[in-house]
Amino acid sequence: MQPILRVENLSKVYEGGFTALKDVSLELNQGEIFALLGPNGAGKTTLISIVCGLVNPSAGKVEVAGHDIITDYRAARALIGLVPQELKTDSFESVWATVAFSRGLFGKKRDDARIERVLRDLSLWDKKDNKIMTLSGGMKRRVLIAKALAHEPRILFLDEPTAGVDVELRRDMWRLVRQLSDEGVTIILTTHYLEEAEEMADRIGVIRKGELMLVEEKTALMRQFGQKRLTIHLAAPLGTIPSAFAGHNLTLSADGRDLVLVYGTGQGSAPVSDLLRGLAMAGIAYHDLETHQSSLEDIFVDLMRENA
Amino acid sequence: MNVHAVKAIYLFEMARTWRTLLQSVVSPVISTALYFIVFGSAIGGHMAPIDGVAYGAFIVPGLIMLTLLTQSISNAAFGIYFPRFVGTIYEVLSAPISYVEIVLGYVGAAATKSVMLGIIILATSTFFVDVKVLHPVWMVSFLVLTAVTFSLFGFIIGIWADGFEKLQMIPLLIVTPLTFLGGSFYSIDMLPPFWRSVTLFNPVVYLVSGFRWSFFGVSDVNIGISLGMTLVFLLACLVAVWWIFRTGYRLKS
Ligand SMILES: Nc1ncnc2c1ncn2[C@@H]1O[C@H](COP(=O)(O)OP(=O)(O)O)[C@@H](O)[C@H]1O
Ligand SMILES: [Mg+2]
After folding, report:
1. Which of the residues A188, A193, A274, B84 has an alpha carbon 20 to 30 A from that of B69?
2. Nearest to A67 by CA among A77, A55, A54, A58
3. A104: distance to nearest CA of chain B, Å?
């Protein structure tokens, strides 16, 4: 199947000579949720802006469903919805008017039912006649999402969608993202809230200093870098790790009260049950257990360290 | 042609006009009325008719031009500057529309508003003086052509400006003086020969003269030259707009 978005050897050098993107290549499939993960200034917004036609590329090529974003910009852009990073809204317009405007701007004929559905999906329906300036920041963010969805895009860009957003909106947003993805809409979100990518994305791309360092299925990424840690709080402190447990990847805390087992997420629960059985046989009692799974944040830090 | 987009932009801009209707209509009407009271009645009573036209009526085309120029420029400049300033321009720039369509929407709306104002002022003037329009088709053509040309000029200023001062600088420092010195309130034949020659470098002279001809059938310069000069300025603005969008000047990095 043809990728819905194809980025080929894309580079961007800003006017001052700053290189914001270096030879980025990427292909996205229809309906997937892709998280672009990177620290501030990595080039996430630049990448999105080029695809949407807001920034001119310095080199390389971008195609949206086979349409070149420059030579065939009408067809390409008609498929894209963009929710920008910053809240940029028309203060004096009503919610309804601004969303209807977006639909027209993207060349779609008036469809009140569609706009009603978008507004209801985003819990904006009862605010439809309010002027935008009377809305809270969270509500304005919803309005921007509604605007981006008004013309039924096939690709939706969410640039740091949850920065400074309340829990309720975050939950609503993820529900909507899943629903859109089920309908075949491709979603690209940027974030440095790392749990977010872990929670939402099918695939994750890590970008740093304008370079796309890796693109990986989330589960593969977790398997590759993911580690689990089991901490056993012992009933009585141990002096050393008994030799019977030499085969396990165990460490003992300085005070001898905690036994820590490190194992890969790919190994299932076997290492845990083996160890617990071993402890029972050796007559070592414990009063509590605790597991910790490495988050994307840990993976990210590891990756950065490797490449530094 | 993305007709829906042009319509969306046009209606959006017109909605802004309706929202600010009072200030955008009332203030030019009041200032025009004041001009008529001061120049038309108070001073005009002591003025001899110019080219057989009573002074009060003589200044009507000039007054309409004055409003038309300043309003076209400031409307169009503000219309495109504001979304740049607030950041909402991102949506227009990411939409599947060509720059011709963007310009049609913004400049079309600004020109519409100016033409409406021109007509309102013409209507207001009939309360003060006796005006008749000899060549109505030419009158409307000059009105529309001027409104479109100077809305384009305003659009360029709105893209060039990087602050509110610059936005107001051109209208205030250049257009208003040129209009006052462009024969709005007098015939350039009344000037000494030297100053008359200097005045011929002022593009507004041609606009006012042509427009006045459509009212009274008399003009300072040949009507063909008036029309030609207006079209030249229109063309210059079109070239500038074409260049702006081709290079992404002040719009894209
Ligand atoms: N218009 C611009 N001119 C010059 N440099 C820019 C411009 N926009 C962004 N940059 C620089 O490019 C880099 C990448 O920015 P951006 O794409 O916004 O990063 P991110 O979205 O990942 O935080 C930053 O260092 C930023 O300062
Ligand atoms: Mg960013």
Report:
1. B84
2. A77
3. 5
Identity of the amino acid at A126: D
With beta carbons less than 8 A apart as the criterion, state whether A279 and A286 touch: yes
Report the alpha-carbon angle A239-A243-A246, nearest 5: 115
User: By the 8 A CB rule, do B203 and B209 touch?
Assistant: no
**What is the spatial distance between Cα B125 and Cα B127, in angstroms, rounded to a whole number?**
5
**Residue B92: its chain A contacts at CB < 8 A?**
105
ipTM of the modeled complex: 0.89
Tokens of B214: 């459509």
Where do the domains of chain A lie?
Answer: 5-222, 227-306
Q: Which residue of A has its CA nearest to B96?
A: A74
Q: Which pLDDT tens digit goes with each residue over A3-44?
A: 999 999 999 999 999 999 999 999 999 999 999 998 889 999
Q: What is the DSSP letter of B49?
A: P
Burial of residue A129 (CB within 10 Å: 0-12, 13-18, 19+) is exposed
Measured between its terminal Cα atoms, the distance across chain A in Å is 36
Residues of chain A found within 8 Å of residue B2, distances taken between Cβ atoms: 74, 107
Fold of A5-222: Rossmann fold (3.40.50)
The answer to whether B92 and A88 are in contact (CB under 8 A) is: no
User: Based on the number of CB atoms within 10 Å of its own CB, is B194 exposed (0-12), middle (13-18) or buried (19 or more)?
Assistant: exposed
Kindly determine whether residue B253 and residue A55, on different chains, have CB atoms separated by under 8 Å. Answer: yes
In the block, tokens 């957003």 appear at A165
When pLDDT is averaged across residues A213-242 and rounded to a whole number, the result is 85
Cβ count within 10 A of residue A211: 17
Fold of A227-306: Alpha-Beta Plaits (3.30.70)
DSSP per residue, A136-194:
-HHHHHHHHHHHHHTT--SEEEEESTTTT--HHHHHHHHHHHHHHHHTT-EEEEEES-H
Contact A271, A248 (CB under 8 A): yes
- Is A38 touching ligand 1 by the criterion CB < 6 Å? yes
CA atoms of A203 and A78, how far apart (whole Å)? 25
Question: Is A107 touching B (CB cutoff 8 A)?
Answer: yes
Residue B68 near residue B114, CB atoms below 8 Å: yes
> How far, in Å, CA of B154 to CA of B78, rounded?
8
Domain segments of chain B: what residues? Answer: 3-247
Q: Are A191 and A35 in contact (CB under 8 A)?
A: yes
CA distance B52 to B58: 9
| pLDDT digit string, tens, across residues B79-102 | 999 999 999 999 999 999 999 999
Backbone angles phi, psi at B148, to 5 degrees: -65, -45
Cα–Cα distance, A307 to A39 (Å, whole number): 15
pLDDT tens column, A103-160: 999 999 999 999 999 999 999 999 999 999 999 999 999 999 999 999 999 999 999 9
Whether B245 has its CB under 8 Å from any CB of chain A: the answer is: no
Partners of A187 in the β-ladder: A33, A156
CB A74 to CB B19 under 8 A? no
For the record, the structure tokens of B101 come out as 């369509």
**Class of residue A287 by CB neighbours under 10 A (exposed 0-12, middle 13-18, buried 19+):** exposed
Stated as kind and residue range, the H or E segment containing A233 is: strand A227-234
CB < 8 Å to A102, chain B: 91
